[in-house]
Amino acid sequence: MRARCFSGWAVVLLLLLGAWQAGHGAWIHAKAQLAQYLLQRAWARTLDGERDARPWPWADTWPVARLRVPAHGVDLIVLDGVSGRTLAFAPGHASGSPVPGAPGTAVISGHRDTHFRFLAALKPDDEIVVELPGRPAARFRVVDSAVVDSRMAVIRAADGPALALLTCYPFDALRAGGPLRWVVTARPSTS
Fold first, then answer.
1. SS in 3 state form for the chain?
2. pTM over cut 0.85
3. Could you tell me which of 104, 49, 51 has the C-alpha nearest to residue 80?
4. Which of 11, 114, 138, 170 could tie 130 with a disulfide, CB 3.0–4.6 Å?
């Protein structure tokens, strides 16, 4: 009788643990989607001339660009900075890199399991459009995708405008982090 009672409690405990884990995973994706809604509103304020339009009162970042990949239905707001807090809500523009469309390599990073999951599906010649406040949209075409070791890789500054989109690799990793990164390189579109 005791063994039966113990196994019943063990089953209940395992079910609760499973529900907790599933809820945690769902929360990550729900938070990412809710953040994009709030970021769209902050982006509209940015386009109306508001400087550093925070998407929520306690935010320590703000929208700096809009990233679109029409062939894959991607439409994301890009935040300033690439801290873990920033990337939890949206892709981030590395502040040490130029703005997209300016000379040099603009770097935008995002999480592989939320906003930048689509990077795995990008193909050469896919168009990437980056909109910036007060500037014409910068249009790029994917030229290359590669896996690099972040402990040794260096993103070189291009002579003209270039765009590098970065995320962790592999896309289906069970554990976050690791040294490998998936890098998509794009050059200005000629059409």
1. CHHHHHHHHHHHHHHHHHHHHHHHHHHHHHHHHHHHHHHHHHHHHHHCCCCCCCCCCCCCCCEEEEEEEHHHCEEEEEEECCCHHHHCCCCEECCCCCCCCCCEEEEEECCCCCCCHHHHHCCCCCEEEEECCCCCCEEEEEEEEEEEECCCCCCCCCCCEEEEEEEECCCCCCCCCCCEEEEEEEEECCC
2. no
3. 51
4. 138
Contacts by 24-33, CB closer than 8 A, 24 or more apart: 28/113, 28/114, 29/114, 31/88, 31/89, 32/88, 32/89, 32/90, 32/114, 32/115
Q: Which amino acid is at 137?
A: A
Token representation of residue 178: 């690791």
Residue 63 in tokens: 């929208």
Lookup: tokens for 106 = 């603009």
Cα(96)–Cα(83) distance, integer angstroms: 13
* Domains along the sequence of the chain with CATH: 2-188 (2.40.260.10)
Q: What are phi and psi of 83, to 5 degrees?
A: -70, 165
Question: Which tokens hold the place of 131?
Answer: 């909109």
Cβ-in-10-Å burial (0-12, 13-18, 19+) of 66 comes to buried
Q: Which amino acid is at 143?
A: V
The number of beta carbons lying within 10 Å of the beta carbon of residue 187 is 15
Q: What is the pLDDT of residues 60-76, one digit of tens each?
A: 999 999 999 999 999 99
